[in-house]
Structure formats: structure tokens, C-alpha cells
Amino acid sequence: MNQSTTYQDSSSRKLVILGAAESGIGAALLAKQQGYEVFVSDGGTIKDIYKQELAIHQIPFEESQHSMNLVLAADEIVKSPGIPEKAEIMKQVRAKGIQVISEIEFAYRYSKNSKIIAITGSNGKSTTTALTYDIFKRAGLDVAMVGNIGVSYAKQVATAPTEYYVIEISSFQLDDIIEFKPHVAILLNITPDHLDRYDYKMENYAASKFRIAMNQTGGDYFVYCQDDPVIMEHLETKPIISKLIPFTIMEPLKEGGYIENDQLNIQLNDGMGSEIVSMYDLALKGKHNLYNSMAAGIAGRTMNIRNEKVRESLVNFKSLEHRMEYVSTVRGVAFINDSKATNVNSLWFALESMETSVVLIMGGVDKGNDYSAVVELVREKVKAIVCIGIDNTPIHNALEKYVPTMVDTLSMQEAVNTAFKLASKADVVLLSPACASFDLFKNYEDRGRQFKEAVKEL
């Protein structure tokens, strides 16, 4: 299908793209296709694979610098979500009054005829996005999974447009939208994360997340967790005009997702019945995945996907790499890779889902973590902590008194070998770092892959 349309006579407009990773390259390809005069500028080095794409499409670019005379000559700028407003380049751009948008906004400009399901939250975004995509795919819909997971939204629109887009979106991407409007907006939860980008104010971070619904109208859906106090507080003060569909594990609802008699129910007053599946049959275990499963199921039902297809997906879905990913069982000890857990809340969710004793591998670049939220779960479920990182002092200070054993290691192989020695039959060795990975690894994927390699060598 071809639904791209030229926007504001783009052929005479200069578009500068700041940042040349997945989203920046996608925006560049779409802009070139739409006839913009495009220039890509990255203050760091650009990966070879991305440089090749730019060269093939004859898109000029620079790396390891920003030529401000070219940047400030732009009619419009697409900014990488990784560039903070306090960066010097952004101060100059804002002073010049140039319109700045995110790649999400730019891609939306050329895909307004599609149905868009957008998913945000502090935790569970990737799993819920993949699960929603799986439901749509099984139902035979023409759908793509884009955003922070897989290919960028703009690249998909440029190269293989679809009727449905399931998009994982961060608060940083939402900060630079203007018209972006999903038909279904899902807000999973709001817990402290990235507060350094929001003046260390929780209300600023929450307001950023709620931007996902700011352009919605009465014919759209806002799907949200009724059990999240920050979401509920924000809803009270800043009402939303789209159709509100809550989900909860606390009580039955007249409309929304809920658990009753151990059954996951979705009631949308569409005559399709509410009972979907036993919570014990869900492929994804743990309380947090009850929420993720309800959110994805509601998204499916808003598109009139039959209960049987929703159930089929929720029962058979395979979890994503690095997100509570089962790796192997060695001599009775199970190994789970949750390398994507880069904050304390993700670690809480991981521990909450554990049903046996845990040897926990955690650590990395501490973002000023407050570990008090996991103290009770650590005391209850963790028999040993294996720290992996350059500086494990914050973990020692916060958790050492709650576990019988805590060991420091400096490589993934050492961490896995140590954890295996500390584990007994039927225990779980869980990699759930609660920290960023940049001290010893390229990124969380590299950390997760090294974990899996070390497990294979046991």
C-alpha cells in the first residue's frame, strides 16, 4: 500500500537530522523519499552499517562534530531522543527558533491513514509491544512492530508501510511530538526513571508519559493501569478525552481488563464476552506480566480481534531476548537472562515473579538507584548476590545485610561461574542488573549475550 503524501511542499525544505542511529537513519530515508533536502549530523561516530545506508541513498552526513552553520540553516530538525535539551547544540537551536520534532512525529506525518497502537511506561514496554504485535499477526492483520524495538517507525513507513503499527515509545520521543496521535495509547506504569532529564521532578516525567494521549479524540482509546498511583493521580488532575479503558488485578470491572476467579477477563461492551484465559496458562509469568497481557489483549480487542486469537497469543507467546528469557537448566539450576532490567523497578518485577530461591547477578553503572524497594523481595527470595561491575559499593551498602552471601566479580564468565557454585538444585540464577551496562559491556544486549555464552560453557 502506498499512503505517503508530500507534506508542506517538502522539496524546498531543509531537514537536519541530529543523531545517526536507528531512528535518525530511518528519518533520513523517509525525508529523502519525501523530497526534503536532508543533512545528517552526529556528534559521535556513526556505525559503518548506517554510513553505508546514507551513502547508498546519497544523503550527506557528518560524524564526530556538528557544523552549526548547516544545523542552524534547517527549516526543521529531527532530534535523536538521546540528546538532552541542556546540550549546547539544543540551546543554539532553540535560540534560533527552529521547529524540533522526534522521529516518531516525522513518521506519523506520512502514516496517518494507518491504525497506530502506541505503548509507553517505565517498565514492560518491549514485552507488551511484542505481545500486541503477536496478537495482531496471529489475527492476520497487516502489521509492523516499530519504535524502540526492532526497526524504526520512519524506516518502516519509508520502505514497507503497513495498515497497523505497534510502536514502543519512550518519554524522550514523546517530548518532541506535535501532532502524533495513536488510535490506541497504552500507559503501563510510571516509576522513577531518567529523572535527570526532568529536573528530578516526578510530575515532569509523568506529564511526559501522558503526552501519548494529548492529541487523542473521543474515537480513540487510552488504556492504562488502574493500580498505578502515579497514573491515577495524574488522571484526576488532567482528564483525557479519549475512551478510557483501565486494567487491574484488584477488582472486577464493568469495562476493561481484570482478574476474576483466576481468569483473565477483558470486557469492552462489544458483545464478544469477557473471559479470555486462565492466568495459570499465560506464557508470561509473574504479576507484572498479568498487566502486560491484559494491556496487549485490550489492544487486540479494540481492533475487533476475536478472543480465541488473543488467547492463542497469550498462551503461546515466547518472551523476548534479554527480558526474563529462559536460557538453560544446568544440573537442576535454571538460568534466566533479564539483562534489559536497567532500573530497580525492573529488578523488583523480576524477583516478584520468582517462585524458588534465587542467586542474583546484578550491578553495573548505578544511576543513583534507591534499592529500598527491593529489600523485602531480596530478604525473602535471594540466597546470594553476585555483583558485576566496576563499583559495587552502592549495592553492598543497600543490600549486604539482607543476604547470607555477597560476592564481587569483574567479568560475566566469573559472575556466572560463581553464581552456579552458590546455587543448589532447583534454584534460579537470575541476571537482573538494575543498572546500566556501560562499565563492562557495550550495551544490555552485549551483557545478555555474554551471560548466555557463559551459561553454555558451564
The CATH architecture assignment of the largest domain turns out to be: 3-Layer(aba) Sandwich
> Shape from CA axes?
globular
Reported for the largest beta sheet, the result is:
6 strands, parallel
Give the overall average pLDDT: 91
Just give the CATH class of the largest domain: Alpha Beta
**Contiguous uncertain segments of 5+ residues:** 1-8
CATH topology of the largest domain: UDP-N-acetylmuramoyl-L-alanine:D-glutamate ligase
Work out the radius of gyration.
23 Å
> What's the arrangement of strands in the largest beta sheet?
7-8-6-9-10-11
Give short descriptive properties of this protein.
alpha/beta; Rossmann fold; UDP-N-acetylmuramoyl-L-alanine:D-glutamate ligase; 3 domains; six-stranded parallel sheet; 17 helices; 34% helix; UDP-N-acetylmuramoylalanine-D-glutamate ligase activity; ATP binding; cell wall biogenesis/degradation; Mur-like_cat_sf; Mur_ligase_cen
